[in-house]
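Exercise 7. Predict the structure of Multiple inositol polyphosphate phosphatase 1 from Anopheles farauti.
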Amino acid sequence: MLYLTVSHIVPFLVVLAYLSYSLLVPVAADRWCVDNPKDITFRRLGTKTPYRHVQNKDVRNIATVDGCTVGKIWGLFRHGTRNPSKSIIDHMRGTLVELQRDILENGRLCRNQLELFERWKPRITIAEAKLLVREGGDELYQLGARFRKRFGQSLPTHYDADEFRFKFTKTERAEYSARNFTRGLFGRNEQIQYPEALRRDPVLRFYKGCEKWKRQIKENPYSYREMDRFGSSKEMKTVIEKLSKRIGTFVSPEEVHAIYQTCAFETAWDEREISPWCLLFDKESIATMEYSEDLKYYWIDGYGYALTYQQACSAFSDLFLSFNNAASPRFTFYFTHSGTLLKSIAFLNLYKDNEPLSAQHYRYKRKWRVSHIDAFGSNLYFVLYNCSNGTQTIALYHQERLTHIPGCPEDTLLCNYDYFGQLYTDRIAQCDLTTMCSEPHVPSLQKDEL
Ligand SMILES: O=C(O)[C@@H](COP(=O)(O)O)OP(=O)(O)O
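Solution. The predicted structure, encoded as tokens:
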């Protein structure tokens, strides 16, 4: 007869507990489950970051300067959140639908996150590529409304064509961004006169006419070498491995990029929604994707090559023309694109790191973060103040925050206008786009997408 004592039962229970743990728990633990998806994507979506991640809702009186009044304002605004380009839409409607199937069949995601994938479907068609979306219109509307709150005392209440100049590039997204901004600024009833939008605007989108930049930089594979190197780094391999495991099939770097972009656009489109594609990332892997974006834009639109930002002299010549000519409109607002904002940022020496951005410097702290500096709706504007002592002072606002102008005295956010002008004298005097951009071997090989 077998008598079971406590000393027999306890080890038995321990073995049983271990077996159920090893058989059951790892299955659950093996399923990827992200707790805080909004936290993971916040300000990490590169140039597809929605403006709400970087906006400054504080409209208290930062815009007043003692003893001075606002003389002129000149600013560049990137359009608001838009739809993706055709190639990303193609991925959404093709590759991602296939990956969705893999995830539902073999994916290692926890139950409630799989449910989001069950409901997902591509929402846009090729015909809607790059159009401004509702969120994008709202971003610009809110920007206009906050502009009114900050500068209301210095701005005429009603639109006056002699006082205001609003201009957009020849794209739907820039046009509707301008229209939404002016609505936020004046209310709904003003009839704004917009000048004819130019296909090649030498001020608003100067680089589109710069053949030398296009061929030597933008279309040159060498400009993408740091991004490519980072693409084969151990960090990126880890991202691919993690995503492949979570999806249940091997994914290529291109597919990972399409997933990141879809996560970014779907996040930007609607604050209330969570894109299931974002759930595949953890903090480290999204930071890796973000760095890849930073490398790309650093080398094609930023500090990588001098010609890239030298061309922006064309926009800043317009600023000086406007500020130095009493007859020109007091308030100038240009609605444009990522490429203009980034090149202008580099022209001004803003967010410049000591070392060029490279694949191997991933772990270094950096200033160049396109998620922060070039989100949808990004804005860069200068305010010129006339002061009672006869001097003029200039202030720069980036993303609605007073920002120190590189080259101006360190101890203050305001800069004497003459001092500021001297920083740029040579570059403005030598600003000749025709000479700067002429290249013997035209035309460009790639089709120019608007
Ligand atoms: O049109 C796009 O795909 C990107 C790049 O345009 P460029 O920098 O080439 O003008 O800019 P976005 O319109 O998103 O600001």
